[in-house]
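Deliverable D5.2: sample structural annotation.
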Amino acid sequence: MSAGKAIIFSAPSGSGKTTIVKHLLQKFPNLGFSISACTRDRRGRAEQDGNDYYFLTPDEFKDKIDKDQFIEWEEVYEGNFYGTLKEEIQRIWDNGKHVIFDVDVKGGLNLKKYFGDRGLAIFVEVPSMDDLAMRLRDRGTESEASLSRRLYKAKFEMGFKDKFDIILLNNDLQTSFREAENLVSDFINQDKA
């Protein structure tokens, strides 16, 4: 694979990484969003195959694993696989863009390892676990059981934040937008001087 750079946003679910990534995609026309593949069910009618995720059956996903078609993949929750397809990254680079990711923490670390210096790994941190729980509840998409699982996983994931290039505290969204814009701009332009 050849071409652009990779900007990786990772965080526990509910930290605001998706909101920040969507903002950056509006600000930077030279970024292309990496659509992950997954085996989970769609959340309502709003999620579209090939736009939000590539929704695969477990058998389809495992077939792509066997054919070495992923940069990285993992079983995030039992029976729910997520991964980054090699062809997705090449699609973005072939369009002359840098790729931006919105992935979980383990996926982010795997992507950083894969891309090395061509990747910038940013961990989006929330002010507290209470704040994270409130954000997840406000979504209205979680049962108490799934909320409990997500919070348990988030506590574990927070232990990996120092393995990322940068920690971005998302306490105030507008401030986080500005800081993310500066980080991305600096990284994209660092070789142009």
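Annotation notes: The two ends are 25 Å apart (CA to CA). The beta strands are 6-10, 31-33, 37-38, 54-55, 70-77, 80-85, 98-103, 119-125, 166-169.
The annotation will be released with the project's public dataset once the embargo ends.
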